[in-house]
UniProtKB/TrEMBL annotation:
<protein>
    <submittedName>
        <fullName>Tachylectin</fullName>
    </submittedName>
</protein>
<dbReference type="Pfam" id="PF14517">
    <property type="entry name" value="Tachylectin"/>
</dbReference>
<dbReference type="InterPro" id="IPR023294">
    <property type="entry name" value="Tachylectin2"/>
</dbReference>
<dbReference type="InterPro" id="IPR000169">
    <property type="entry name" value="Pept_cys_AS"/>
</dbReference>
<dbReference type="InterPro" id="IPR036813">
    <property type="entry name" value="Tachylectin2_sf"/>
</dbReference>
<dbReference type="InterPro" id="IPR038765">
    <property type="entry name" value="Papain-like_cys_pep_sf"/>
</dbReference>
<feature type="domain" description="Tachylectin 2">
    <location>
        <begin position="533"/>
        <end position="759"/>
    </location>
</feature>
Length: 768
């Protein structure tokens, strides 16, 4: 690992880049649902009813707050003070949502940053969401972002705990589109509304949907209050003095016109007109004045006022990246982890530590168990140490790819591997013995990718530079534990990896590596192999041992099956799974148990579906996801929940796109990445962020290459490696590495020819 500080890691963070503007108009386009749904609901009132607003104001006066000595004396105050120059433009109002306190807090934070030369437009939507998710955990059910109000001027206090992202990362949405989104999510049961309702779990499905809060918001929540002031039982003179000292003031008011509670920002005053200058989120442009007394609309509630005195440097809040929904797999035990909060906003403002652990969320096991998650954070939030149902877990974000996390857990005093993904759990098959560790593994440790060979002559090839590193493995007595060391050169000649193979499934490992005195996550999957079907129906196995070095080095062919010539099509499902569509439309599942060495060992075939012969094209993504292109170009999503054992359990179909029938070749890789070649030779990249549930959440298309019209098939086999077969010359096989496979950046290692004869004499070529 390179010696990069946590503060600097965001430079290399593998997150999407802006969409290319030079993509053919014939390419399928995708947009957020929130951009397209109509606001068909009745508007709500803009204020909170007094029966809930006034008791909240009484409670916040009891909150502790820093005592700040104001610098001026009333006798020296200017007759006019204006902070208008620090105020950002209000591009959107709160509309029909009760989000005034989020707008007021964000307005104060934006102005505080502007004073130090940092001009930003921050996300009210994210701040409102974070508060609702926190309260859904401690006080739910019935608390979610469809429910307005439930906040006040003390949001300034909360902003010292919660960092927020730019509004470009999490745009504001009005009540109608949000309600439509909630209703469109199957697991909400249409039970959520502006008046509450629904279970905690139904709220989770809506709250953590990526169309509500994109992952970019969690990854780039970087703006936060450092210090603030609070004054109770204040007067107008206190407001004037605070403004004169250079601080904007957030206050609670009674809105006489709308008959309810409201929160707004005061950013100036004028003694000649006896008015305060205010920023009010109820309507645009939002800037107006309010009389000191007897204002026709607002009456200040003089319980508590808040003001920001300093802001934090712009920096990532790592712990916030844990919030949301994860698919988890610890040693083959799968479930869904929901983290609703990372800090107690009623606490001391510090992340929970070993002596102050808190309940953070819930784990929902695939077998039906529901367990509390209690824990604390290490390394500024990068690591999460928690107990799930009393079982200890040490989990760490991949800081260069926070879409993923990993680590280890203990059971009967033995460590076992854990992998987490914002997408799908992977791995297939069942049963384990030590020999199944022998082979070539695609690995990632804290976002650094490579290929590890386990066996008599171990080696590690770093994907970024294709350099082979000296590697050695310690002898051990625990069958599933592989203690590995890699010499990365320089001052890192012996980096230790504790690799923990999953014992309840094949070809997957978790674990940790040690570097800089800290633990970092590791995960690995057996590398994909290539298979061919001959005209006689023989299934042959090949392993490109030189893949990580882009070299023409192979093992095979080895015959691993027969009778495969009778299928309409065969395609790889990842992790050794093959799917075959029979002429009558039956979908068959097979798992190659002998894939690590090319042995004749199989599970299946098992019939897992019918009616698959009518599609124009069928191909598989990751974790059981299968895409089918209909003859009219619609892209349909299925998820084979029984991919691991061949059971006929499914989710879908859901339509996730249109216009997908114009590609020459089309393939899906890990983590929702898709590639398609067009007749003009363009190679288009997409990332389907909704691939875990079949939601139409996309990034792309982005043109990442040209000159691909000569290739009739492509395969994306993980870690950015892509094979392409020429239509001419008997089928030359080429290999590239796409360094931007997670982001859509057009950064490549030049392709090399790694084989020939992969065309005319073969019925099918499959990667899995």
């Amino acid at each position: 690992m390179e010696t990069t500080s946590l503060a600097g890691i965001l430079v290399d963070l593998q997150v999407p880049l802006p969409v290319s503007s030079d993509v053919s108009p014939e390419a399928p386009q995708h947009f957020s649902l929130l951009d397209s749904v109509s606001d068909s609901l009745e508007p709500q009132t803009l204020v909170e009813p007094l029966d809930t607003f006034l008791p909240r104001l009484e409670r916040i006066t009891k909150l502790s707050g820093p005592r700040v000595t104001l610098k001026s004396s009333l006798a020296a105050l200017s007759r006019q003070v204006s902070h208008r120059q620090w105020q950002t433009t209000l591009n959107v109002s709160q509309a029909s949502r009760g989000t005034c306190w989020a707008f007021a807090g964000i307005a104060a934070l934006e102005a505080a940053y502007a004073r130090i030369g940092v001009h930003v437009d921050l996300s009210e939507h994210y701040l409102f969401h974070l508060s609702k998710a926190h309260e859904n955990h401690v006080g739910g059910p019935g608390i979610h972002s469809l429910v307005g109000f439930q906040g006040s001027a003390d949001i300034v206090h909360h902003l010292a705990y919660w960092a927020v992202p730019l509004s470009a990362h999490v745009p504001y949405s009005d009540q109608g589109p949000l309600q439509n989104l909630a209703n469109s999510i199957p697991n909400t049961g249409m039970a959520l509304s502006g008046s509450g309702g629904g279970t905690r779990e139904q709220a989770d499905w809506f709250e953590f949907d990526l169309r509500n809060i994109p992952l970019m918001g969690r990854w780039f929540a970087q703006y936060r209050v450092k210090t603030f002031g609070k004054k109770d039982n204040f007067t107008n003179d206190d407001i004037r003095q605070t403004l004169s000292d250079g601080y904007d003031v957030v206050v609670n008011v009674y809105d006489k016109i709308n008959a309810g509670g409201h929160v707004l920002l005061i950013h100036g005053y004028d003694d000649d007109t006896k008015t305060f200058a205010i920023k009010n989120s109820q309507s645009l442009p939002g800037f107006s004045t309010m009389l000191y007394v007897n204002d026709p609309q607002f009456t200040i509630q003089y319980g508590s006022m808040y003001f920001i005195t300093a802001v934090q440097p712009v920096q990532t809040q790592w712990a916030a990246m844990w919030v949301g929904r994860w698919e988890t797999d610890h040693d083959g035990w799968r479930g869904r982890l929901i983290i609703r909060r990372f800090i107690n906003i009623r606490g001391n403002g510090q992340l929970p530590n070993p002596g102050s652990r808190i309940s953070l969320g819930t784990w929902y096991a695939e077998d039906g168990r529901v367990l509390d998650v209690v824990g604390h954070f290490v390394d500024d939030g990068r690591g999460l140490h928690c107990d799930i149902g009393g079982q200890p877990f040490e989990l760490y974000l991949h800081t260069r790819d926070p879409y993923r996390a990993g680590g280890r857990t203990w059971w009967n005093k033995l460590p076992f591997g854990v992998v987490l993904s914002r997408g799908t759990a992977v791995g297939a098959g069942s049963g384990f013995d030590r020999s199944e560790s022998i082979g070539i593994w695609d690995t990632v440790h804290d976002g650094w990718r490579g290929q590890l060979r386990i066996g008599v002559d171990p080696s590690y090839v770093q994907a970024a530079d294709a350099v082979t590193r000296r590697t050695w493995i310690d002898p051990g007595t625990t069958a599933h534990r592989i203690d590995t060391h890699v010499d990365f050169g320089g001052d890192n000649r012996n980096q230790y990896f504790q690799l923990l193979l999953h014992t309840r499934e094949d070809g997957l490992m978790g674990g940790v590596t040690s570097w800089g005195g800290k633990d970092w996550p590791v995960e690995g999957r057996l590398s994909q192999n290539l298979y061919t079907i001959t005209p006689e129906g023989t299934l042959n196995w090949y392993r490109n041992t030189g893949r990580a070095r882009l070299a023409r080095e192979w093992e095979g062919p080895k015959a691993v099956g027969s009778g495969w010539g009778g299928f309409k099509t065969v395609f790889g499902g990842g992790d050794g799974v093959l799917y075959a569509i029979a002429p009558d439309g039956k979908l068959m599942w097979y798992f190659h148990d002998g894939r690590n060495q090319g042995q004749f060992q199989w599970q299946g075939g098992k019939e897992v579906g019918t009616g698959w012969a009518s599609f124009a094209r069928v191909f598989a993504g990751d974790g059981g996801v299968i895409y089918a292109v209909a003859t009219d170009g619609r892209l349909l999503w299925y998820r084979h929940l029984g991919r691991r054992d061949g059971s006929a359990r499914w989710q879908g179909p859901f339509q996730v796109g249109t216009g997908w029938n114009g590609f020459i070749a089309l393939v899906a890789g890990p983590d929702g990445c898709l590639y398609g070649t067009q007749p003009d030779g363009s190679l288009l990249w997409y990332r389907h962020y909704g691939y875990d549930q079949g939601y139409p959440i996309w990034h792309g298309p982005v043109r990442v290459g040209s000159g691909w019209q000569g290739y009739d098939k492509i395969w994306a086999v993980g870690n950015g490696y892509i094979y392409g077969r020429t239509a001419a010359n008997g089928g030359d096989l080429w290999l590239w590495r796409h360094h931007g496979f997670l982001t859509g950046e057009a950064s490549w290692t030049n392709g090399v020819k790694v084989g020939n004869g992969w065309g005319g004499g073969m019925r099918e070529v499959i990667a899995t």
